[in-house]
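Reviewer has doubts. Consider these tokens.
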Amino acid sequence: MKRTLSALLIALSVSCSVKETVNFTNPVLHFDYSDPDVCRVGDHYYMTASSFNFFPGLPILHSRDLVHWEQVGAALADYPAPEFHGAVQHGCGVWAPAIRYHDGWFYIYVGDPDRGVFMVKTQDVTGRWEPPVWVVEEKGFIDPCPLWDSEGNAWLSHGAAGSRAGLKSILFVAPMKADGTALTGPSRIVFDGHLTQPTIEGTKFYERDGWYYIFAPAGGVATGWQTVLRSRSVYGPYEEKIVMAWAPGTVNGPHQGAWVTGPDGGDWFLHFQDKGAYGRIVHLQPMTWRSDGWPLIGEDPDGDGVGQPVSSGRMAVSGKRLSSVGNGFPAAAVGPYGLDLSWQYPSVPGPYWHRALPDGGVRLYSVKQEHIGLWECPNLLERMFPAERFTTTAKLTFHPNPQLKERGECAGFVVMGESYAGVRVVDTADGAALQYIECTDAHRGGQELVQPLALLDYTLTPQAFPYSSGNVPAVKYPDIREVTLWLRLEVAPQEVEGNVPDALCRFSYSLDGESFTDAGEPFVAAPGRWIGARQAFFCSRQVSKNDSGWVDIGLL
């Protein structure tokens, strides 16, 4: 093995000349960072993104050039809603955050569609963030963005989730306390997009040259465009203009993102593209301000004032920059759970779920499940797909609890989404049963199909309590059972006419780490709820016991 569990390469800090041109190819991050937002502090850029029901949440990424990124923190280790603790709330929780730096503090505002808008803040962007403060409690409020304007006023823009509010395609502005902790008046609808900007959402609020601007995507995630609104008054009326839309041969539905100005005065826009099972990946676009006061995002080959996404470009940077190796892989620091921040659980984890191992691996303890199957399994240790084409190989050493009379404790490696598939090992009376599992439409109650692969023998290690008292013999414990195997996942794009490519997944297994045997048929990955497919490890059981088995996992 022997690498850290993340398998994400460590970013190296390299010196550059004071002025340097950096070439980039989109996507700059082939990772599922939905609804990205960015702010700049000096020569440093900081990004966050939606994390929905995954924890640690609100990833914090750092860059010196908007192209090469590393994850340096996470702003949300816990969540003030009990249903997120030890249970999966698919697609709920943390929607479309906005990150800003104001008066020495970093602020992130987040919409929870079921609860309202909360804020977290810190003076140490890579350290601990303060607990969430509910700025406004209102079901249906989403996509918030703060603005401290040039006159010293604080404002909050936001949208509405039709699934909760019963109304969408409208945008709001509300006055806010100077410290950003609460609204000082009601939210007012400042724009109705039903006729011209359907499904407008994802507000980003700015001020420039005496104008208030709201950047907001419309038209839907996969098929929409970028709209900008502007007004001399914070409450409008707002003019509207489409400033970027996809065209044949460009990115489908360039969706929600962020305008940021570099130290040299150059303007840039980061946004996401919905790429199906690969998730919502991040693109970088040049941005210019036209003489009429409207922005143009991307390139404008026909001169109509509506940009289209670029596939590549270059930008000037100054000072030192981070250089990450291979397809924009961001390095990641160790997070609040003792694991590399690239790993998340689909719920707030319990303290008994894992242990970080000294060699960089992780030990997952089996957790009793209330549900059959993995769709509602809260202790899946998951990470995003890192590229269109990649291979992950993991060494698993499984130690089932020797005191469980009811067998069935299991551990495995799967590709997780609304459908899932993978390989697991199950403790049985006859040995360790290796199985390929597949579940279609798990989110609709689909049942797992099980294909036997092999029956493996355990290695037995006798265990005895080492002390005796007088004539009382040492206590005899059951033999420790152990089995080691290697599991491999290979993912490659499969072209689909007129659409983004499918992610074709192939699993295989090995008993010696060298010779691999195919497991099951190739599987087309399915996205989850608002997210891409994910790689996931698990260790679970259906029975209660005062102790558990475990699996040790290391990536090669």
